[in-house]
């Protein structure tokens, strides 16, 4: 029998096992099942730039530090850490009971002990140009250019900065910074994307791309609960890839999925009231899980006037961008398109939930169609102006149509173009889109994560708009040297206001995560980063 046939039979056998596992199985096997309609392009953490890949990486890998439910940094692979007085050197003392998953690349196929050299290698991959990780921006311009990462011994890792950067601990909690073993990455080469090996609570059993990804419980996982029981509680995780949200909802209704992330617009009114509550028919049948989520939904506008796309576009003028911001009735949008899930974004780009957020200081845009018309007139906008094209992905087509109608109501000519997610990402990365729908989710709980989106020295990602303002850059660089939180937060607010004044974006809403959850799940807790946390989930 060929290796390929053997793998296929193993996969079929496990699918049969998964299918036979129901909530009430007397053998007690617990399988958590969810759907990922966008698909998962890779299991290599160096490329975890989207929610689907981040969620999966969270099950397979660990980072030096983690973030708890209160958005505080807590030990993970590192037991503790120390910061030098000059703020340039961070020393991490590692756990000595963490093993990589078993893998053929290891001696006798058994996972070995994780050490400081693994951390050096893993973080080095992110800035290795040959790897071309989209996460390189998290370290570029921040870490020492000669020896940024050092293994002092097996259990001591050191990170060195070019200049103080207080958010660096938060950056180390990002899934880009997951620790991987060098010999396994080299063993598989480019195929490491589908042959992952980490230290996480689950390991990959099989992956039939486009069909299902199966994860098994890591029996050697190092974390325990308060009673001393080894985590995780679940025996397996099954991820399906149904690309139709209506089909996904039907599978959830019929008990074949345990969790649904967000609600498809076409059936949200069946489940939710206009005030965002569960309708009576569903009470007791499902659990509605709502919580604030550090995510800003917005419309991006290309800001770089040297780009020929802007040569004749009305979007090159600040007053027109400001008019567009005033033309959007965010409260109406939230009521009718989102069933009140989220908060209208009438302050800055930084969402509510951060300590620095203050809607009384950072002033955004309220709905004012008359002011929008006046600004358009002052900018010289007329019927001969170039048509503005709003690009979005299919699931946001209704939002695109709403925005277009609002802009047309104040006299702008707009059309909506729906394209595939990959195409939109490519166009925004290469500055080939003028106006597009987007979102920015917190990677770590510091507003710098949002303001870095507009730092002119940052590439895309994260600076997709190519925003450039010397005063913003000056404040941004100054803030990163400031250890006093209140002073730094004041700088954050000034930067946010500069962005609002220049209007390279149209903030739409500060998000709220919404999940439909199987009532039989226990320990499924939401968090402000909308991370899929399964270590303490049971059925």
Topology, number of strands: 17
Distance between the termini: 38 Å
Write the CATH fold name of the largest domain: Dipeptide-binding Protein, domain 3
Rg (C-alpha, Å):
24 Å
* Helix-and-strand structural type: alpha+beta
Level of helix content?
25-40%
Number of domains: 3
Overall residue-averaged pLDDT value: 92
The oligomerization state is single chain
Commentary on this structure:
This protein has 539 residues and is of the alpha+beta class. The protein folds into 3 domains: 1-35 and 201-258 and 518-539, D-Maltodextrin-Binding Protein, domain 2; 41-193, Dipeptide-binding Protein, domain 1; 293-513, Dipeptide-binding Protein, domain 3. The chain is 27% helix and 19% strand. It contains 15 helices and 17 strands. It has helices spanning 3-20, 51-60, 116-127, 168-171, 182-188, 245-253, 268-271, 318-327, 330-337, 369-378, 397-409, 421-429, 448-451, 470-479, 485-502; strands at residues 31-35, 65-67, 73-75, 78-83, 89-94, 149-153, 156-160, 202-208, 212-217, 236-240, 259-261, 287-301, 343-344, 388-392, 414-418, 435-441, 505-517. The strands form 5 sheets. Strands 11, 12, 13, 16 and 17 form a 5-stranded antiparallel β-sheet that branches. A 4-stranded mixed β-sheet has the order 1-10-9-8, covered by helices on one side. A 4-stranded antiparallel β-sheet has the order 4-5-7-6, with helices on one face. Strand 8 (202-208) and strand 9 (212-217) form a beta hairpin. The longest helix has 18 residues, at 3-20. The radius of gyration is 24 Å and the shape is globular. Residues 1-26 have low confidence and may be disordered.
């Amino acid at each position: 029998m060929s290796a390929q046939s053997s793998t296929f039979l193993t996969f079929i056998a496990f699918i049969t096992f998964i299918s036979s596992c129901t909530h009430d199985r007397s053998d007690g096997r617990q399988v958590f099942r969810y759907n990922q309609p966008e698909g998962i392009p890779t299991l290599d953490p160096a490329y975890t730039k989207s929610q689907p890949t981040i969620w999966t990486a969270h099950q397979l890998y660990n980072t030096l530090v983690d973030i708890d439910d209160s958005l505080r940094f807590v030990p993970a692979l590192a037991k503790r850490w120390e910061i030098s007085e000059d703020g340039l050197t961070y020393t991490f003392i590692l756990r000595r009971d963490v093993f990589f998953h078993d893998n053929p690349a290891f001696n006798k196929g058994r996972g070995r002990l994780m050490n400081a050299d693994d951390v050096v290698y893993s973080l080095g991959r992110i800035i290795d140009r040959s790897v071309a990780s989209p996460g390189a921006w998290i370290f570029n311009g921040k870490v020492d250019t000669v020896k940024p990462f050092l293994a002092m011994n097996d259990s001591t890792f050191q990170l060195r900065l070019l200049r103080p950067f207080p958010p660096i601990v938060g950056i180390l909690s990002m899934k880009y910074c997951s620790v991987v073993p060098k010999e396994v990455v080299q063993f598989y080469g480019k195929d490491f994307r589908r042959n992952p090996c980490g230290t996480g609570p689950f390991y990959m059993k099989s992956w039939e791309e486009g069909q299902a990804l199966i994860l098994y419980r890591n029996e050697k996982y190092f974390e325990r609960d308060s009673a001393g029981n080894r985590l995780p509680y679940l025996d397996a995780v099954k991820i399906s890839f149904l690309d139709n949200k209506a089909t996904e909802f039907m599978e959830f209704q019929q008990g074949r999925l345990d969790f649904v992330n967000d609600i498809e617009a076409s059936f949200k009114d069946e489940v939710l009231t206009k005030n965002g509550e569960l309708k009576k028919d569903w009470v007791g049948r499902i659990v509605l899980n709502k919580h604030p989520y550090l995510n800003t939904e917005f419309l991006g506008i290309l800001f770089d006037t040297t780009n020929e796309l802007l040569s004749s576009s009305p979007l090159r003028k600040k007053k027109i961008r400001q008019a567009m911001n005033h033309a959007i009735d965010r409260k109406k949008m939230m009521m009718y398109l989102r069933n009140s899930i989220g908060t209208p974004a009438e302050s800055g780009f930084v969402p509510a939930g951060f300590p620095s957020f203050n809607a009384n200081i950072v002033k955004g845009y309220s709905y004012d169609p008359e002011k929008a018309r006046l600004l358009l007139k002052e900018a010289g906008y007329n019927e001969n102006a170039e048509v503005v094209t709003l690009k979005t992905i299919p699931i946001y087509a209704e939002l695109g149509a709403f925005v277009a109608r609002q802009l047309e109501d104040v006299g702008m000519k707009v059309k909506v173009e729906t394209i595939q997610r990959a195409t939109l990402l490519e166009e925004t990365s290469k500055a080939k889109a003028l106006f597009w729908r987007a979102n920015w989710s917190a990677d770590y709980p510091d507003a710098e994560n949002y303001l870095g989106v507009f730092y002119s020295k940052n590439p895309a990602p994260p600076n997709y708009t190519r925003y450039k303002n010397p005063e913003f850059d000056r404040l941004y660089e100054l803030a990163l040297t400031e250890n006093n939180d209140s002073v730094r937060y004041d700088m954050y607010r000034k930067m946010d206001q500069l962005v609002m004044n220049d209007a390279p974006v149209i903030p739409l809403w500060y998000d709220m995560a919404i999940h439909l959850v199987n009532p039989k799940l226990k320990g499924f807790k939401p968090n402000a980063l909308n991370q899929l946390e399964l270590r303490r989930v049971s059925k």
